[in-house]
Amino acid sequence: xxxxxxxxxxxxxxxxxxxxxxxxxxxxxxxxxxxxxxxxxxxxxxxxxxxxxxxxxxxxxxxxxxxxxxxxxxxxxxxxxxxxxxxxxxxxxxxxxxxxxxxxxxxxxxxxxxxxxxxxxxxxxxxxxxxxx
Length: 133
Prior knowledge:
By secondary structure, this protein is of the alpha+beta class. It has helices spanning 4-17, 45-56, 106-123, and strands spanning 23-29, 35-43, 61-70, 74-85, 88-100.
């Protein structure tokens, strides 16, 4: 069985094979939703989750939602990431995510905030670390 480090390398190799189609541009905005000029790049969530599921197996990683908040214009969530190593669950840490509420759709913003937080947690394992290259 491959070590966690080897599995992370396999996930990143798989992500690279998708090329530019897997990369998203994230325009940073202020509280009012106005772009503030800064642009970040990252892998699209579905590519990351599919790659993690393929390499680790969907039964070998999970998250726990530890906090969720709804503000006037955005949803925020904090999650903890767990990865099964041998037969033990390793908690790599927690991260917060956020998503703007668009056209009053709070549910989509909540889902987006959770997804954002999970991807940030996966980055603690160096998954998707080269998306900006």
